[in-house]
Amino acid sequence: MKYLFAPGCALMIHKPQLAEKLKKFAEELYGPMDTLLSCCFNKPEIEPDTCIITPCSTCNNRYRSLYKDCTTSFLLATIAESETFPFPDYQGISMSIQDTCSGRTDDLYLNTIRTLLKRMNIRIVEAEKSGKRGKCCGQTLYGKVPQEKVEAFMKARAQEMPEENVVVYCASCIQGISLGNKRARFIIDLLFNEPTAADEAGIVSWNKRLSDFRNSHG
Predict the structure, then answer these.
(1) pTM above 0.90, yes or no
(2) Most buried of 111, 136, 146, 175, CB within 10 angstroms?
(3) In a 3-state reduction of DSSP, which class is residue 176?
(4) Phi and psi angles of residue 121, each rounded to the nearest 5 degrees, phi first
(5) Which is it for strands 183-186 and 50-54: parallel, antiparallel or unpaired?
């Protein structure tokens, strides 16, 4: 079987160096593989019988829906069960979770993220509306309603989080949680013991960067 690594647009914009670290881990398991930079929404051509490995829940959903002659592997789930990954120890710090829209209806993603946090010695304090009862961070509203309404929704959602530190597993959620004056902690940053920072120029800049990346990697 051929393996293909698909890091996802948002991770490549946020920290491409972490995409490389994830690819290295995948290659230790499966051998050398190419990297797919085309956005999953651009429906790139992929050879049949390819296993597409991705850390992105949106990409994983798209690939397993669109490419029936391929298989997908959610890389974070593989890491969650790994006996060799060097998990950092966060010494019992408490964090809440913002479940991404593309993942909160699927136990694969919900369970994976919570397992990863436990393996990093992070105490989970769930918001009243989390998991399958969770709410969007506000990113999916961008471009559909006026910007001030998007930002108001983001701030309100962030304030529903009981902890100051809020784990996200969609890089776009970093923007919404940070806008609401909570400390976003991107799951892949946590795995490599790195800080998480939002786009300093705000959600307009972030969404432009996303759009530019997708358009330039057709």
Answers:
(1) yes
(2) 175
(3) helix
(4) 60, 50
(5) unpaired
